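re: ur question from earlier - yeah i can do the single chain one, its not a big deal. heres the input i used so u can compare w yours
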Amino acid sequence: MNVEIQPALLRERFYPRSRQTVRTAREFAAETLHAWGVTLRQDDVSLCVSELATNALLHGVPPGRGYRLRMLRFEGVVRVEVHDSGGGRPRIGRRDPGAEGGRGLLLVAAIADRWGILARVPGKVVWCEFAVGAGGTVGAGGAGEPGGAGRTGGTVGAGGPSDGL
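and the output i got, formated as tokens:
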């Protein structure tokens, strides 16, 4: 059986350590989805970009550094990655029930079809994926498939080289 392999589409942008970049990261994500013809799940992707960028700024970007937002589209999937150079491992849930915030990864886990964490030197990559069809339609997915009940999370894997983050 011959299978045609489609190359991945990739767009990425680097952002300095500034809260104002969360809005521009969302705008970049929306522009990317539009350029790729992905018309569904835009709000889901935008919310996850906001949460991952905010988490990177609050917990993963040391002073004088920044973060990278990378978006990929391949085999019916849109993948969002936020690369930072901070230490530590993100956790789901709030540390202090009375504190503000702490729900970012909880939202990502609830909205995205899959998500995880990869180690890199320095820092980490927090990623999430959304199943989409060839025309930007949502994948049906069954248990264990993107869009189904088989969600994954918290995966740690090999990272990439340092790129000044």
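The chain is about 25% helix and 25% strand. not sure if urs matches, ping me
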